[in-house]
Amino acid sequence: MNHQVNDNQEESMKKPIDIHLTKEGLFSFEKEYQAILDRRPEVLARLVAAREQGDLSENAGYHAAKDELSAMDRRLGELKLIFRFAEVIEPNQDGIVGLGSCVTVENESVVSKFTIVGALEADPAKNKLSDVSPIGSSLIGKKIGKTVEIDVPQGKVRYRIISIK
């Protein structure tokens, strides 16, 4: 009986979601949070001013400010959850690809650089690949010189790791 209580207590103490971030990713979210907080009073003032103009049913300024304030508050809530559950992962210094690693790979003499980041930081246009993406997850745990074959939507691609920072 006592064992069951301990299991239940342990179960309730687990994080409901796992969020892995790099230091840079956390810093970026903190900047976004502060920027929203700094802009929020201006939007609130616009909402109050528009409300004072009278008939709200046809007041586009009121509805726009209300929608913007709602979106800001929703994003602040999301960011608070990120801060609450985020685990900042330090990049490996042991020559193994991990979260935060900048990996240089070669594919048929074409050299590419990817930074492996958590899913919330991913931005393929900036070569920031999620650790759960096909390429990112295939590179995790590998060393310099290792070749990986990855299934991507265009077919199979082979990358040889030439450096890890």
Question: Which characteristics define this entry?
Answer:
single chain, 165 residues, alpha/beta, Helix Hairpins, Chitinase A, domain 3, 2 domains, 5-stranded mixed beta sheet, two-stranded parallel sheet, 7 strands, 44% helix, elongated, disordered N terminus
Written description of the protein model:
The protein has a five-stranded mixed sheet. A two-stranded parallel sheet has the order 1-2. It folds into two domains: 75 residues, Helix Hairpins (Orthogonal Bundle); 63 residues, Transcription elongation factor, GreA/GreB, C-terminal domain (Chitinase A, domain 3, Roll). It contains four helices and seven strands. The radius of gyration is 23 Å and the shape is elongated. The N terminus is likely disordered. By secondary structure, it is of the alpha/beta class. Helix 2 packs antiparallel against helix 3.
Mean pLDDT: 87
**How would you write the strand order of the largest sheet?**
5-4-3-7-6
Question: Rounded to an integer, what's the Rg over CA atoms?
Answer: 23 Å
In one word, what is the shape? elongated
Count of runs of 4 or more consecutive helical residues: 4
CATH class of the largest domain reads Mainly Alpha
The percent range for strand residues is 15-25%
Please outline the helices and strands:
Layout: H1 2-13, E1 19-21, H2 23-51, H3 60-85, E2 86-88, E3 102-107, E4 110-117, E5 128-130, H4 134-139, E6 147-152, E7 155-164
Q: In brief, what are we looking at here?
A:
The chain is of the alpha/beta class.
